[in-house]
Amino acid sequence: MPFGRRHPITLTQKARDILVPKSGIGRLLRYAQLRLQRLPGTPHVIALGFACGAFISCTPFIGFHFLLGGLFAWIVGGSIIASAIGTFVGNPWTFPALWFLTYRWGHALLGRETNELIKEGDLAPENLIMSTEPGMWERITDIFVPMLIGSIPAGLIAAVVSYAIMRPVVATYQLRRRAKIENRRKTHRTKKAAEMTEMANDS
User: Fold this and answer.
1) Using CA atoms, how far apart are residues 151 and 159, in angstroms rounded to an integer?
2) Which of 12, 102, 105, 199 has the most C-beta neighbours closer than 10 Å?
3) What is the model's pLDDT at position 50?
4) For residues 140 and 158, what is the distance between their CA atoms, to the nearest angstrom?
5) How many CA atoms lie within 13 A of 2 on its CB side?
6) Which is nearest to 84 in space by CA: 101, 69, 105?
7) DSSP secondary structure string, 117-179?
């Protein structure tokens, strides 16, 4: 195939690249931080958009986080691009903990104990396998519905914490950036004035 790889990437390598990027996790996070700080908009708009993405990343709508995060950001007046970056709160490293937490909280909010469901066999592995047998949808909803309900408080916590962290970070960066631009302008004006004075003296 033209312009294709000489050695195709295996499924294992693809999974490894998702969990541990070749560029390094630290570098990836640094890039996301710089991209977020340089977005146009006020600190409130950017932090609000990021919070929307963080909230959506806690929901079980895997595959639709970008779309839903952008929709939420648009509704509340946040940055849509920042919402896309905020969805990275949900990633292969955090998903296991998020899913476990939202699942347990969902059952607690529904007034059901997870331990009791396990004893009754509703959550036994053989009963959670997708199949064409009658009752398959009920078994799916036993997982999805509690996770959806539990994701609301988890998402709200993630959104509030994200907003509280990102707003001052973005505000500080923007202040420093404006100060640097102003210093460059002053330096340029001073240099220009010195050149004009020197030209006047020579004449």
Assistant:
1) 11
2) 102
3) 93
4) 26
5) 0
6) 69
7) HHHHTTT-HHHHS--SSTTHHHHHHHHHHHHHHHHHHHHHHHHHHHHHHHHHHHHHHHHHHHH
Q: Determine the Cα–Cα distance for residues 42 and 62; give it in Å rounded to an integer.
A: 29
Contact 122, 85 (CB under 8 A): no
Region for 62 from its dihedrals, namely left if φ exceeds 0, alpha if ψ lies in -120 to 50, beta otherwise: beta
Radius of gyration, alpha carbons of the chain:
25
In tens, the pLDDT along 32-91 reads 566 666 777 888 999 999 999 999 999 999 889 999 999 999 999 999 999 988 898 887
Which residue, 102, 156, 145, is CA-closest to 122?
145
In this structure, are residues 167 and 44 in contact, taking their beta carbons and an 8 Å threshold?
Answer: yes
Owner of token pair 């909230």: 55
Tokens of 33: 């931080």
Higher pLDDT, 112 or 97: 97
CB 74 within 8 A of CB 189: no
pLDDT score, position 51: 95
Task: Locate 136 and state its tokens.
Answer: 């398959």
Is 141 a residue whose pLDDT tops 50? yes
Q: What is the pLDDT of residue 173?
A: 85
What is the rounded distance in angstroms from the CA atom of residue 94 to the CA atom of residue 99? 9
- 137: tokens are 């949808």
